[in-house]
């Protein structure tokens, strides 16, 4: 993963996090607010999975070396 891809991933993660925070702040019990929260939560979970997959694949060899030391 090159620097441009990392920056794009970080930017998207930031956007998803901000969207999630807004959705939580706007929870007022209405169906629209709950729907918005569910959408933001789904996007956040999807992004978390992607980040863990990307970083996990990249960092796994280093973690294995540290554990073996």
Mind explaining what this structure looks like?
The protein starts with a helix and ends with a helix. It is elongated, with a radius of gyration of 16 Å. The protein has 69 residues and is mostly helical. The protein contains 2 helices and no strands.
In short:
The protein has 69 residues and is an all-alpha fold.
- Helix residue percentage: over 70%
Strand content: under 5%
Give the overall silhouette.
Answer: elongated
Give the SSE order as H and E letters. Answer: HH
Cα-based radius of gyration, to the nearest Å: 16 Å
Question: Major β-sheet, in short?
Answer: none
Residue windows where pLDDT falls under 50 for at least 5 positions: none
Structural class comes to: mainly alpha
**Span between termini:** 26 Å
Number of helices: 2
Q: Quick check: average pLDDT?
A: 86
User: How many E strands?
Assistant: 0
Topology:
Elements: H1 3-25, H2 31-68
Summary tags:
single chain, 69 residues, mainly alpha, 2 helices, 88% helix, elongated
């Amino acid at each position: 993963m090159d620097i441009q891809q990392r920056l794009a991933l970080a930017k998207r993660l930031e956007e998803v996090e901000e969207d999630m925070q807004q959705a939580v702040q706007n929870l007022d019990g209405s169906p629209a607010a709950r729907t918005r929260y569910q959408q933001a939560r789904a996007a956040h979970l999807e992004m978390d999975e992607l980040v863990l997959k990307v970083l996990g694949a990249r960092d796994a060899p280093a973690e294995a070396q540290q554990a073996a030391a």
